[in-house]
Amino acid sequence: MSELQKTVTVVFNRKGKKLLSEREFINALFFELKWAEPTGAGRIEAKEAQRILEAALRKGLLELSEGYVKPTFDLKTVEVPLNYKPTRDLLNELGEGASSASASPSATQSDKKVEPLPVFSVLIDDIAAKSGWNKRDVVSRINKVVERLSVDAEVAALLIGKDVGVDVGKYLLEVKEEVLRK
Asked: What value, to the nearest 5°, has the Cα angle with vertex 34 and ends 29 and 38?
């Protein structure tokens, strides 16, 4: 059993669902899982979360349909330690899968379209970089704006981004489309 399969299992078990949107899957990795590191648990970055999703699709662990992913295996058959945290070896596993999947013309999963990183994740990265806050602080501030103004998280991220000096104009159309999809 691969570390990728364990990671996929943990995401679905923590969410308590058998079907997740791509965004939910990425956000669960990004916000809820940490890497197992001897010096402390570092957060999984948004780009790493996207790579994990793409690799799980490519390796046939997940099936994508209309923006939703579901496991192609029985989650109950995977034994995962209680406080499981993926190791950075997972990234090596992803790298190997990427080269072998692209080399194989019969890889059916490689034909599936994976959405780019959600605009919300990109905004969080930009706000953190511009403000010097860590991502958890950014999300906390976004949540406060959401509660105070009763707006979507993406809109709150735009407001905070503008306040800290992020060029939010380039995200307006994406945010508008995201909010209208809800």
From this structure: 155
Give the tens place of pLDDT for each residue, 47-104. Answer: 888 889 988 999 999 999 888 999 999 999 999 888 888 887 777 767 644 433 333 3
Q: How far apart are CA 54 and CA 65, in angstroms?
A: 14
Helix (H) / strand (E) element for 160: namely helix 153-164
The amino acid that residue 110 corresponds to is S
CB atoms within 10 A of CB 84: 15
Quote the crossing angle between the two packed helices 119-131 and 172-181, to the nearest 10°.
140
Residue with tokens 């099936």: 63
DSSP state of 31: I
What is the model's pTM?
0.55
Where does CATH 1.10.10 sit in the chain?
3-109
Mapped onto helix, strand or coil, the DSSP state of residue 28 is helix
Q: Which CATH architecture has domain 3-109?
A: Orthogonal Bundle (1.10)
CA 140 from chain center: how many Å? Answer: 18
26 Cα distance to chain centroid: 2
